[in-house]
Amino acid sequence: MLLAIRLAGAGAGFLGQLLLARLLAPDALGIFFAATSLAAVLGLVTSLGYPDIVPRFLSRYRERRRDAWAGAFVHRAFMDALAVSLATGAAIVAAAALWPDVAAGTRIVYGLAGVAIPLLALFGINNGVAIARRAFAVAYVPESLMRPILFLAILVGFHVADAPAGLVIVSAAFFGVTILMGGLQFALIRSRIPHRVAPAPGRLVARWRSEGIPLIAVALYTNLFADLAIILASPLLPPAELAAFGVALKLALLVGFCVQVAHQVILPDLAEAHARRALAGARDKLRSASIFPIAFTLAAVLASVIGGEHALALFHPEFAAAKWALTILIACQLLRAIAGPSALLLTTIGAQKTNAVVCLASTTVLALGNIAFIPAFGMIGAAAAVLMAWMFWLAASAIVLVRRSGIRCDTLALVRRAANRRTEPSTG
Question: Structure pTM?
Answer without folding.
Answer: 0.82
